[in-house]
Amino acid sequence: MARLAFEPWGNYSLALAASVECLGVEPWTSSSTTPEVLRLGVEATPDSACLSFKACTGHFVKAAQEGVEYGAMVNSTGTCRLRYYHLLQRQILRERGLRLFVFNVGYDGLKPPIVRHFDPDLPHFLQCCLRARLKVLTVDAIEGAAWRTRARELEPGATTRVMKQCLQELGQARTTRQIRAVRRRVGERFGTVSLAAGRSPLRVGLLGEAAVLRNRFLNHNLEEILGSLGVVPRNFFLLGEEIKNIFGVGLWSRHSRFTLKRLARPYLRSPVGGHAVESVGNAVACAREGYDGLIHVCPTGCMPEISVRPIIRKIGRDLDIPVLECSFDEHTSHVGVITRVEAFVDVMEQRRLRSGHHGKNGSSA
Which of 37, 57, 219, 297 is most open to solvent, judged by the fewest CB atoms within 10 Å of its CB? Predict the structure, then answer.
């Protein structure tokens, strides 16, 4: 059976593996980048390339070295360089004598090129797509429960253990009934974690470039760092919401692209590519919803996110919400990330004390 590689998307890799199975091929991936993969990507790509491109290209180089025949790279529109990445990756692999063809996951007709190429049986394809969607929604539920729980856990690491158990069960689930059963048990599983009574955690929104937001290795496990400091993070790249936006479902919902564009319009009227408009819209929404702070995450050199960084600073000033800017490349120090986040948490705690505001219940999902 042919194998198809795709870049790590954190816990969503479980669901994306199921979507690859829809095509009748074997998935090849991991939930996070490794030091070896990043080294391969850095060696194969120009210094000016962003961290996300280096990590993804390194993943394809590693896959090709292990005999994987195909790869899939997400697409973009507008001015974001992501729209050209699959072409650059094909050239890099070809120049290194590696036989792996990278598909552009986008539409140029009724079917994406990757679906036309493998031409799966339609009933089987639709059933697999349903299972993949259910796994995405279950990952969203698991992560939301983990964000709320970790900030108040009495035993450090208890939330992470429960989360890993839930994800392991989800990875083993093969039918829609089994996937739904895992999702129903999420609340019960996290309910076994002992919580500190009366603690009202800070709430922080994580905005920015999707690949770094979702790759634990690239963002230095930012969500767990915040949780260990008693902060409830809310990662604003949720694949379940992204799928809805792609297909125009839930047009008026809080997380729809239409709503976020409306919120961003006073600050940003022109599209700049990537998820930059969403970053601006979510920054405004977080300020209005009483979040204690924002962390803007992007790989060094990311054109869309760098373009809106001054705008997000202005939102912070206008709407009185602290903003921490985090740029990541292959030289970023893990200790440095922890130090900056700890200092940012101190700032938010002092602001809360000065204002006499004790926060909400810590729910951010």
Answer: 37
Of the three residues 119, 145, 172, the one that is the final residue of a domain is: 119
192 part of a folded domain: no
Question: pLDDT by residue (tens digit) across 305-359?
Answer: 999 999 999 999 999 999 999 999 999 999 999 999 999 999 999 999 998 755 4
Are both 214 and 99 inside the same structural domain?
no
Residues across the chain: 365
Number of domains in the chain: 2
User: Could you tell me if residue 271 is inside a domain?
Assistant: yes
Sheet arrangement for strand 323-328: 231-235, 202-208, 293-299, 323-328
Residue recorded with tokens 């091929």:
25
CB 299 within 8 A of CB 331: no
Q: Looking at 100, 119, 138, which one is the last position of a domain? A: 119
More confident residue, 129 or 325: 325
What separation in angstroms does the CA of 170 have from each of 13, 132, 164, 192, 235? 11, 11, 10, 19, 20
Question: Residue 221: helix, strand or coil by DSSP?
Answer: coil
**Structure-block tokens of residue 64:** 């090709």
CA–CA dist 354, 341 (Å, integer): 20
Residue 327, domain CATH: 3.40.50.11900
What distance in Å separates the CA atoms of residue 19 and residue 63, rounded to the nearest whole number?
18
For position 81, what pLDDT does the model report?
79
Asked whether residue 181 is assigned to any structural domain, the reply reads no
Cα separation values, 119 from 90, 107, 116, 123, 359, Å: 22, 15, 5, 12, 52
Write the pLDDT tens digit of every residue in 232-280: 999 999 988 888 877 766 666 777 888 999 999 999 988 888 889 999 9
Residue keyed to tokens 């969203």: 140
CA distance 53 to 49: 6
Nearest to 56 by CA among 17, 93, 22, 24: 93
In a domain, 53, yes or no: yes
Virtual torsion, Cα 190, 194, 197, 198, nearest 10 deg: -40
